[in-house]
Amino acid sequence: MEEELQLNVPLLRRRVPNLTSAARTAGLRAATVSNLCTGKIPVGRAEVRTLVALAALAGCSLDELIIRGSGMRMIETGIKALDLLAPVVRGGTVGFVARPNMGQLVLLAEFMHRMNKRGYTTIFWDPGTDAPGISHVKDQSEYVLATRDDIYKQIVKLREERDILLGVDRSTVLSGELFSLKESLKEAGARPITVALVDMAYAVADDSAAEAYGPLDTLWRFDSDLISRGIYPAIDPITSTSTISEGNYLDAAHLALQQRARKLLRRYRELRLIVTTHGLDKITDSDSQLYRRGERLESYLAQPFYVSEPYTNKAGEWLSLYETLEDVKRILDGELDETEASELFFKGKLVVRT
């Protein structure tokens, strides 16, 4: 089955840094290579000569280039903090844990917008409330439907052609309707359905997400400290997690950088209280260096959203996973130690100075 094949994009990006130019030189269409890397063209539908050429460019075998099996795959959102620290599992459930005014519906609207750009079908299960921000979610959803039966029919109709992103409120968990929908769709087969689960009643405590939502593949926990300092998306980099980071599902280079970034940000947060209260001179030189790097990484992970452009006057930014990992490595390795954190704040890809 073509769904059991995927391109080893991290390997390809590492070995062929300027992939677009290299593909053209090899006689391949840049658009075809891009669509294969993003999943718009399934590997099973690619021409053999294209795959052979890509393997030759990467200096690897076809077995190394093509990942076989039905293991977990991440969905790139183009949002740095999420793709680095808590990736979305394709066909899994993402739980948003937030208190009021933390931006969970803004993030859901942005998620919908970005998946629309990637060719997903986006469906919002309208809970019939007028929660602040819900209109933005509806505006970014391809379909807004109110009943389980309507959603089932729409998914069955479209699922052969495209992956589905379904946005739902926790009320569908409490009523049992989400479980019923998932059970009925098991028999429908075809392409995966990824569920984004929010709590518009804000009743989910920070430590009870699994009990309140049921099994989650990705957890995005919103952080009030980041919000107080105007850092968005306000996703806690320490406690936001993804099952794709466990086992052998994540590329080794990605996993290593994720662990390094999380370790740095954890130490940075431990030092913030001391620095904020007493100043940098109260910590050791080595801790001071870690603090500054953590400050830079935290600033770098702030990112403009497309749906917020009218309010921020900043154009939305999309970064590929490769670009994000490349930039994060530069920060962690100290290449940006002479750069002020403010220069990295709320921007996209780092500009390499020559």
List the helices and strands and how they pair.
Elements: E1 5-7, H1 9-15, H2 19-25, H3 30-38, H4 48-58, H5 62-65, E2 66-68, E3 74-75, H6 80-85, E4 88-89, E5 93-97, H7 104-117, E6 121-125, H8 134-140, E7 143-145, H9 148-158, E8 164-169, H10 171-175, H11 177-186, E9 193-198, H12 209-213, E10 218-221, H13 224-228, E11 241-242, H14 252-278, H15 285-301, H16 309-312, H17 321-332
Parallel strand pairs: 5-9, 5-10, 6-7, 6-8, 8-9
Antiparallel strand pairs: 1-2, 3-4, 10-11
Helix pairs in contact: 1-4, 7-8, 9-11, 14-15, 14-17
Describe the overall structure:
The chain has 3 domains: 2-68, 434 Repressor (Amino-terminal Domain), CATH 1.10.260.40; 93-216, Cobalt-precorrin-4 Transmethylase, domain 1 (3-Layer(aba) Sandwich), CATH 3.40.1010; 252-343, Bovine Mitochondrial F1-atpase, Atp Synthase Beta Chain, Chain D, domain 3 (Bovine Mitochondrial F1-ATPase, ATP Synthase Beta Chain, Chain D, domain3). It is 45% helix and 12% strand. Helix 9 runs parallel beside helix 11 and helix 14 crosses helix 17. The protein is of the alpha/beta class. A 7-stranded mixed sheet has the order 7-6-8-9-5-10-11, sandwiched between helices. The protein has a two-stranded antiparallel ribbon with strand order 1-2. Strands 3-4 form a two-stranded antiparallel ribbon. The mean pLDDT is 90. The chain has 17 helices and 11 strands. The radius of gyration is 21 Å and the shape is globular. This is ATP synthase A/B type C-terminal domain-containing protein.
